[in-house]
Each structure stands twice: as C-alpha cells, then as structure tokens.
Amino acid sequence: MPDLYIIGAGCSRNYSQSKCNIKGLKSPLNKDFFKMARRVIENTGMKHDLYFMDEVNNLISTIAPLYGQVKGGLDFFENKGLTLEDVMTLIDINDKLFIPFASPQNKLTESRELHTLKELLVRTLDYALMGSPCTKHNKLAKKLSSGDIVLSFNYDILLDIALFNLGKITENSYRMNFSKIHIDEQWLTPKETQSDVTLLKLHGSLNWIRCGFCGALLLNQYRQHTLIGAEEFRCPRCSSDERYAKRVIVPPAQSKDYGDRDIAFLWIQADNLLKEISRIICIGYSFPSSDFDMISLMRRLRAKQSKMPDVYFISPDSQARKRAEVLFGKQVTQYDNLSKYLDT
C-alpha cells in the first residue's frame, strides 16, 4: 500500500540555501507573508520597478482602509493580524459581491488587485528560495517510493525539482492535462511517460500557466517566477500575449474558488486515489478549520480505511497536532522539525 504525504507551507520554511542575502527573509507563511514581501521590495530592484510599484500601491490603497489605515505605503504590511488568507478573501469577496458585473473583456483576465498579489507572492517566493536545490527536500524525495502519493498545498516547486532530479516524477505526475511544456527555451508536446510518484498540487503551482484567452494549460517545468524566461510570453496555442497569461493558483481565501476545471478535477482524482493507505506523513500543514475542502477529503479517506494507518506529524505546532488527531481519530507521532523525521 502507498504512503500518503501531505505537504504545507511549513515544509518550504526548511529551505536554507537562499543566496539573496536579505536579512530575515524566509519562505513565507500565511501569517508573515506581507512582512517577507516588504523585505523583498525594500532590498531588491523591485522598488525601482515603477509600473509594479504602482500596482502594489493600488493594492495597498484598496486594502488598507478596510483595516482602518488611511495612509498607504509599505508600513501597512506591518499591520498586526494581516495575513495572506485574509487579504485574498477580501479581494475575492470584493470581486464577486461588490463588483459583480465585469465586462466580457475583464472576465478573460484577473482583477488588478488579485493579479498584483499573485505576482507579489511569486516574487517573494522567488527571492526567498533563490539558490541551489533544497537539501532537506532532496532527502525527503529519497524517502518516497513508487506508488506513493503527495498532496501538496505549496505553490513553490522545491519538492517538484527534488523529485524530477531523482527521476521519480514526470510531467504526468501532476495529473494535469497540459497542452505544452516549456523546456530548454521551447514548447514541447507532453510525453506519455509514467511517473513513480503522484504529486497532486491541489492549490495550483507557480509554474502552471493558463491562457485566459484560449484556455490552454501550460507547464513551465523548471521555472516559477518568469513565465518563459527572458522572452515575452506568447501562448503556443493561440499566440495571445502576457495580458491573458494567468498563474494557476487557488488563492488561500476562506471560500476557495475551484472554477478552473483542471484544479477541480485534481480533487476528484485525489479522492479516487486515496483508498487503502499504509502511512500518512504530514509535513508543515496545520489542518486549519477554514480548509473545508481538505477536511472533507480526509474524512472521506478515513471512511475508506479498514483500519486507520499510523500518522506522522512534522511540526512544532501542538494545536495543529490536536486538530490532526481529531480529524484522523487517533494519536499521531509528532516530530518538532523535518530534520528529526528525516533522520529516522
């Protein structure tokens, strides 16, 4: 029987090979994303990108009044209680409820604020994870065996690269219907190559691109920041430009929108794959009560087990461990950090 790995943002926090030399910068969590984003803006050439900073300032001027802050500026990113999930939720509600009648042209693209926040997330992750492949993710990848299943809620590609380099996954591991794959500066047709490990990124990935004009789903295999390197994006299917290129990311809003059919189908595939499981290994995922979709999936998993497998919980968060124990209906074995688990 396969092992099930559940990967959250706390797993990416283990990355320590960054070469960007920004003091205090780490792979962001929900609770400190904006503080990390500010560090990146103020310590890189991003602050001199006038167009992007105009977009960031527009985002701040839209959100700050909702937190009682009249003046804009990056100081807003230090607001206590400001989280990525909260801001994404506010933008989501604003777009759906208070600005519901978008023009047909605008429906092809994302709202200005959501697009900016996604790009800020991408750039922050890009700097935080700038450097050689993660040694801990490499060790983790070596533990995975043929048939194992990974449910990842991380947008970054740390584990993807580790598994690709070991030959344990191919593009088919994602179970996504990619039209083209960008490798070595060219778009190639996907191959029907089997994958040892299944990697389901249930909230999307920074290297997945959706053409908002023709709907083509594209994989930029080894990149997460730029769409296709230094070249200007042009869809290989319909030749539309970067205005229509959307990152396939499910924003961490409390009420998640699974309007992208491929992402929605991932959840169905996960449900079908999760039958009898040998072990469950949770790394850096806190089982928040707002993740109703994941809670439902895990309850369906529990109903399929003749006997609940052993659960390993890798995180120092005791409250998250208790939520996991309630969800799985049994005590879990806890490791305070990933290194301790990898050494077992």
Describe this structure in words.
The protein is of the alpha/beta class. The chain has two domains: 1-17 and 133-206 and 248-344, 3-Layer(aba) Sandwich (Rossmann fold), CATH 3.40.50.1220; 30-128, no CATH class. Helix content is 36%, strand content 14%. It has twelve helices and eleven strands. The strands form two sheets. It has a six-stranded parallel β-sheet. The relative contact order is 0.14.
Entry summary:
It contains twelve helices and eleven strands. The chain is of the alpha/beta class and 344 residues long.
CATH superfamily of the largest domain: TPP-binding domain
Question: How many DSSP helices?
Answer: 12
First-last Cα distance: 20 Å
Proper CATH architecture of the largest domain: 3-Layer(aba) Sandwich
Order of strands, main sheet, comes to 5-2-1-9-10-11
Mean pLDDT: 89
Listing every helix as H and every strand as E from the N terminus to the C terminus, the arrangement reads: EHHHHHHHEHEEEEEEHEHEHEH
Overall, the morphology is globular
Report the top-level CATH class of the largest domain. Alpha Beta
Strand content: 5-15%
Radius of gyration: 20 Å
**What is the fold named in CATH at topology level of the largest domain?**
Rossmann fold
Structural class: alpha/beta
Number of strands: 11
Largest sheet: 6 strands, parallel
Runs with pLDDT <50, length 5+?
103-108, 225-230
Keywords:
344 residues, 2 domains, alpha/beta, 14% strand, Rossmann fold, five-stranded mixed β-sheet
